[in-house]
Amino acid sequence: MIIGDTTLESPFVLAPLAGYTDSPMRRLARRLGAAMVWTEMVSAEGAIRESDKTFELLVFDPAERPIAFQLFGSRPESMAGAARRIARLGPDVIDLNAGCPAKKVVRGGSGAALMTDLGLLHEIAATVVGATGLPVTAKIRSGWDGGSINAPEAAGVLEAAGVRAIVIHPRTRNQGFKGSADWSVIRDVKRAVGIPVIGSGDVKTPEDALTMLETTSCDGVMIGRAAVGNPWIFSLALALAETGRPSPPPTLADRIRLALEHLELMVAAKGERRGVLEMRKHIVAYLRGFPGASGLRAELVRMEGHERVRERLLDALDALA
After folding, report:
1. Active-site residue (options: 68, 100, 155, 189)
2. Other CB atoms within 10 A of residue 254 CB
3. 220-238 pLDDT, tens per residue?
4. What is the β-pairing status of strands 6-7 and 2-3?
5. Would you give the DSSP letter of residue 63?
């Protein structure tokens, strides 16, 4: 799969997840097989104001490349101005969010609300494409509701505006993240355009990722929540695609070792107090699904202090030896 000047080494990429896909998580995902990563979405208006909070979300390490910065907004001139500002930070791609279902986003005409106004969607995309020399991608949904499935039409509008790849999450805005993703919409989008199409939604295992590729003919698979606490999913999916055989999943010891590394990255990036607090949700995910791990999780999420958490994880690792 090629996006602009970037050739991806595999079809499997990391989704943008608010509150999760910060620089430490993206670094680990890239090392463990994600072919490309996306930042958490940032507001065009915040980027124009050069808000510290907005620009903090765009801090990245060179090891994360190729990386896409995801923007949301509803005004073409603001989106273009924001694209020019964030382009100075050196991303590989700028991504337009036309799929977020959150009320606070769609209320302002952004995110999935753009699926109800394809003329505005085209104008935003064309303006951003013309604002920088970077390739532009876009993330869309099936449509606003079950009676307005228009993802193939929206993808065609975006392709005509110069967008270089489409990510499609095949749920409607009204579904949010409930119900099932309708992968047939991914297939319909792929048939509608000549640019790369990346599918997203309900990919929980390496087998799911391959099934999506095979049944929809999409070019790539975006994995989000299934990668939280399990960034190995990318390398496991690639190994399955290459060999046809499933690889052994990471052991509890593997997960604890990676949690320790993740903890160090979080503290280095965000400071001790914030790093430990934000690491709690990741620790819960790393330790999920193992017999007897619930007690360890309950201990760790109450602990404060980097060294205390680190020592408890090391003790748990020693106990497995």
Report:
1. 100
2. 13
3. 999 999 999 999 999 999 9
4. antiparallel
5. G
Binning the chain into helix, strand and coil, the percentages to the nearest 5 are: 50, 15, 35
With beta carbons less than 8 A apart as the criterion, state whether 95 and 139 touch: yes
- CA torsion sign for 20, 22, 23, 26 is positive
Task: Identify whether 218 is a catalytic site residue.
Answer: no
Cα 45 to Cα 207: distance, rounded to the nearest angstrom:
40
DSSP code of 288?
T
Contacts of 173-182 spanning 24+ positions with Cβ under 8 A: 173/101, 173/106, 173/111, 173/112, 173/113, 173/115, 173/141, 173/143, 173/144, 173/145, 174/101, 174/144, 174/145, 174/146, 175/101, 176/101, 177/101, 182/142
144-199 pLDDT, tens digit per residue, is: 999 999 999 999 999 999 999 999 999 999 998 898 999 999 999 999 999 999 99
Domains and CATH numbers, the chain: 2-243 (3.20.20.70), 252-320 (1.10.1200.80)
Token digits of residue 214: 């095979």
| Residue pLDDT, tens place only, 30-83 | 999 999 999 999 999 999 998 999 999 999 999 999 999 999 999 999 999 999
Identify the CA nearest to 286 among candidates 259, 306, 251.
259
With pLDDT > 70 as the criterion, what percentage of the chain qualifies? 100
